[in-house]
Design a protein that fits this description.
The complex is a heterodimer of chains A (about 110) and B (about 150).
Chain A lengths: L1 H17 L2 H12 L2 E2 H5 L6 H13 L3 E6 L2 E6 L2 H34 L1
Antiparallel strand pairs in A: 1-3, 2-3
Helix pairs in contact in A: 1-4, 1-5
Chain B lengths: L6 E8 L3 H9 L1 H4 L10 E6 L6 E7 L5 E12 L3 E8 L4 E13 L2 E9 L4 H8 L6 H9 L3
Antiparallel strand pairs in B: 1-7, 2-3, 3-4, 4-5, 5-6, 6-7
Classes of the chains: A alpha+beta (about 110), B alpha+beta (about 150).
């Protein structure tokens, strides 16, 4: 049960993190190479603090790994939580598709009887 | 199609009319006949079909293991719209939101099912803005080496 709650919270944090366009943009930009907070701030009309807050949300969702070298913070994508989130969505799509197949068969059956 | 904002949309055209389809979604006697994952599973349905009412699906797999899904009805508009929360411990999903919409389609019914994992205003907004990032863009992220 603890595991269930932890996984639920983790999923929640991932989708919460992905819900903001700036955070999605940050993920895209660190997907290919590591970047500093300063580099991430450049294309946004945003302060370093604001970018840093977005990075914190991504870190809580374990989507970003931040390492400190001297005074600079470097951010890297950590894609595993994205895979987990995608997996749940794919499972849900499968579940509803199988159910709707069964619904279709049931409706045909009822139709024949009447 | 799964989206990065945590929603899937499934669409179906059904030959039956909206009355019949809505009945299949809401009448426990009919619900038990299709709301199960596979052959040889059994399902019991408890449903209090009022806004704020609970429902609970208890499904037993062929090995006798119990799987539950449960939630609360949020909107009930006969023969056109049904909205309910959906929790499933097996999938670690809690309080997600399912919206089923039924529209006339010739003599049949066009069914649209939207399942949102996050019931948050900002998610709704991002849907309204027409953001359509899908699994394709997710795969771009996933292709990058860890």
């Amino acid at each position: 049960m603890v595991d269930y709650r932890a996984r639920t919270r983790q999923l929640d944090q991932v989708f919460h993190a992905l819900a903001h366009p700036a955070r999605r943009e940050i993920l895209k930009r660190i997907a290919r190479e590591e970047r500093t907070i300063g580099e991430l701030a450049v294309p946004f009309a945003m302060s370093l603090e604001a970018v840093s807050k977005h990075v914190q949300v991504l870190e809580r969702a374990r989507l970003v790994r931040r390492t400190r070298r001297g005074r600079t913070h470097h951010c890297r994508l950590s894609p595993a939580p994205l895979r987990d989130a995608a997996k749940v969505l794919v499972e849900l799509a499968g579940l509803w598709n199988r159910r709707l197949d069964a619904l279709e068969r049931l409706l045909d059956e009822i139709d024949v009887k009447e | 199609m799964p989206t990065l904002s945590g929603a899937i949309v499934v669409r179906r055209r059904l030959k039956a009319g909206r009355n019949r389809v809505f009945q299949a979604w809401t009448d426990p006697a009919l619900m038990t006949r299709w709301l199960f994952p596979a052959a040889r599973w059994t399902v019991t349905v408890e449903s209090d079909l009022v806004v704020g009412g609970d429902y609970r699906l208890a499904m037993r797999d062929p090995d006798g293991v119990l799987h539950v899904q449960f939630g609360v009805y949020r909107e009930i508009v006969p023969v056109s719209r049904l909205v309910f929360t959906w929790s499933c411990p097996d999938l670690a999903v809690s309080d997600s939101l399912v919206t089923v919409e039924l529209d006339d389609d010739g003599g049949g019914t066009a069914l649209t099912l939207t399942h949102e994992l996050l019931e948050r205003p900002e998610v709704r907004r991002s849907h309204e803005e027409g953001w359509t990032g899908c699994l394709g863009s997710l795969e771009q992220f996933l292709d990058t080496p860890e």
